[in-house]
Design a protein that fits this description.
The chain contains eleven helices and ten strands. With 258 residues, the protein is of the alpha/beta class. A hairpin with a 2-residue loop joins strand 1 and strand 2.
Length: 258
Amino acid sequence: MGFVKLERRDHVGIVTIDRPEALNALNSQVLSDLDAVLDQVEADEAVYVVILTGAGRSFVAGADIGEMKGFTSADGRKFGVHGGSVFLKLENLSKPVIAAVNGFALGGGCELAMACDIRLASEKAKFGQPEVGLGITPGFGGTQRLPRIVGMSKAMELILTARVIKAQEAKEIGLVSAVYPPEELMDRAMELAGAICANAQIAVRESKRCIRMGMQTDIHTGCAFEAEAFGVTCGTADKDEGMGAFLEKRAEKHFQNR
């Protein structure tokens, strides 16, 4: 795809937003390319975990202001629906997605990172939702995901002031899990992906599904989802293998994803 590259290393799919001359800003074509790559990743059973990153010195600097400048209300609504639907597809991908945030993650870039399951950041990364300073609102889920991740008060503060924060503050408020030197970021993301890949993938995907679904509902419904998932995994060969390894006190496990 033109602006989005997909590389596979063993069972890890590395998706790179590749528009460095525009700091990887999201225009309609980038969103369409990302949409197509997500379909490709979902269909590839050899991909267990996805790492999403940006080419050059930016993760994604935001949505493309040059494209948005001439938007009418109808244009803006259409663009928001487009980006929002792609980000929902990313969020609901059956495979875990790690954001490796290597630079600017502003506006749509911050929203893209928040649609991922786990966020790791470079020491040079910067996060923010600066839209109100441009006379618009966040358009790709920022008003919904940021309060779910960092709490309402902090989300209100960041969105309403348009303040940009550095990686360490992002870690302090729970927006990212860890911060690494720039040269270590992708290696650390690959280590994390490898740790996930080593586990039973049906269990991994069911666990992700339960977490995602549970965050959108009440505790009783969430626990019902979990009981269903637990039942599904108890009927797998991987459960037999994992428990057999535990009881036999052997470190090696041979999961078959069935």
